[in-house]
Amino acid sequence: MTKRRPICVCGPVSYFADDVHTTCGCGAPIVHRPYVSAEAIKVCIGCAANYTALHRMLGRPVRYRLPERAALEAATYLAKPKGSA
Ligand SMILES: [Zn+2]
Q1: Residue 1 has pLDDT above 70, yes or no
Q2: 2 alpha carbon to ligand 1 midpoint, in Å?
Q3: Pick from 7, 5, 3: nearest CA to 43
Q4: What separation in Å is there between the alpha carbon of 50 and the centre of ligand 1?
Q5: 14 Cα: distance to centroid of ligand 1 (angstroms)
Q6: Domain-by-domain residue ranges, the chain?
Q7: What are the tens digits of pLDDT across the range 23-52?
Q8: What's the 78 CA to ligand 1 centre distance in angstroms?
Q9: Is there a contact between 37 and 67 (Cβ–Cβ < 8 Å)?
Q10: Phi and psi at residue 28, in whole multiples of 5°?
């Protein structure tokens, strides 16, 4: 059985100085955190939506998770007063 590679859904906007800037397979610019595993397929939000729709159409389960490290970074970022570094 072939192990499926994880998919990392990436946005187009960078929020951290050490973000990794790359390109989705469709050509859209995307940004992800540096600790995302090398084996993960990085995709833009549009491609992730298409992938999800395809899997639902085929009756396959689609699971999403937010890694704890990413959740903590997001919470810390959102808790900072606007305009602070
Ligand atoms: Zn894409």
Answers
A1: no
A2: 24
A3: 7
A4: 9
A5: 16
A6: 7-79
A7: 999 999 999 999 999 999 999 999 999 999
A8: 26
A9: no
A10: -75, 140
Q: What is the pTM of this model?
A: 0.80
| DSSP letter for each residue of 5-60 | PPEEEEBS---STTPEEEE-TTS-EEEE-TTS-TTSEEEEHHHHHHHHHHHHHTT-
For ligand 1, the distance from its centroid to the CA atom of residue 41, given in whole angstroms, is: 11
Tokens of 21: 């800037």
Residue list, CB under 5 A from ion ligand 1: 24, 26, 28, 44, 47
Ligand 1 center–CA 7 separation, angstroms = 12
Cβ neighbours around 29 below 10 Å, total: 14
Distance 4 CA to ligand 1 centre (A): 19
How far apart, in Å, are the Cα atoms of 27 and each of 22, 46, 47, 55?
A: 9, 11, 10, 22
